[in-house]
Design goal:
By secondary structure, the protein is of the alpha/beta class. Helix content is about 20%, strand content about 20%. The chain has 9 helices and 18 strands. The C terminus is likely disordered.
Length: about 475
Amino acid sequence: MPMEDSARTACVSRTFLRSWRHHPYLILSNRTLGLKQNASGKGDVWAFTTKIDQILKNHSAAGVKTLELDVFECRDLNACYLSDWLQIAITPKIESLTLELPSKYEEEYNFPCSLLFGGNGNLIRHLHLTYCAFRPKVGIGCLRSLTKLHLSHVHISEEELVCLLSNSLALMQLELNHCSEIICLEIPCVQQLSCLTVSGCSMLQMIDSKAPNLSTFNFTGDNLVQFSLESLQVKNLGMACLKEINFLNYSITKLPYMVPNLETLTLSSYNEMVNTPTIAARFHHLNYLEIYLDAGLFPEYDFLSLGSFLDASPVLETFILSRAMKFDPVLEDFGDASNMRQLPKHKYESLKDVMIYGFCSAKSMVELTCHILDNAISLESITLDTVNDWEDEEDLGRCSVAPARKSGECCYLDSDSILEANKGLMAIQKYIAAKVPSTVQLDVRGPCSRCHSLEPSRYEVKC
């Protein structure tokens, strides 16, 4: 129920008022409080602080189990209010605490860790802090029930984090986002830890995890860092590198040995300049592979070299290749099938589903697709989409052909990208469509006739 409706109901119903004051789950933000931003983009700080003051004081007797306090839009909020609110909310009853502060507080606000000690933090299962300093004291046990810790833009030293993790024996999920003080991330032997996510930690050079049951690991950074994962249970791995020019080369040569029991692998490369090599290493258990390539590819990148990943994955069932939309010059006609390169025959007995988003008319992209069709003997479906529509989260296709999408929801494409997408359609029709077996479902998607139209003269492309 919206806050304004709750207030009106409380005015006419004492029963509702008593129930509201004992309601232990509070989500407080400008939106939930019914407050609007002014013309400068700022909220009404006085109204915001007054309402939160009143709500928390009304709940001080009954206690709070969940507090989500989002003050990100209140850039002029005085930090003393925060300490007062946390003093009221953090009691032995609290189980979940989320604090989202304005970005300027990253250098200005120290989270009052003392409030978590003395029994107040014993029941906390979820702690999410954003834009602050978090300095847990060495040698003081707390957060014994903590299962999920998320720190984003938080100042915490390596020693402080190790101390906190060593005392959080129930921890199952750890997420660190833009924690700039950490150089060497050491994860002690936390038995329950199963999911680790690290992203944007600019000073990070090494991750050393001794968690024996880690099963999911996600990493995003400008460059690769040194990894040491002692757990053989890692089955799900996601990695993204923004500046490495040979990230896929690293992935296929190193990961089979570092994480031998992988079942799902997602790789995102934003500046790839080295073709993927053919090696003897194998991902013996990998059944899902997704590769995203951004527009930083050098023009001569050989998509056919990605066949090395397929060769290295004998039980792979799903392969997804996503390519950022990028306009390429009009390509010359590269002839018939006799001019296509062919990799050595390597039957993919388990591969069932293939999806290529951002399919283009580059010869090596066509060669990769034909290679898959020639060797995937159990293939059931293949989707070739010449548009990489990030707004289509449910994979419905363009709004002109998918009734579930409203008009205008397709991603924006400039005229050159639309032209390239149509060149991709021509390449599919000329080189690929006839090779698809009748037992395989082919789904070809192009630009939206409603959102991505061009003048007819723009389609006159030699192919």
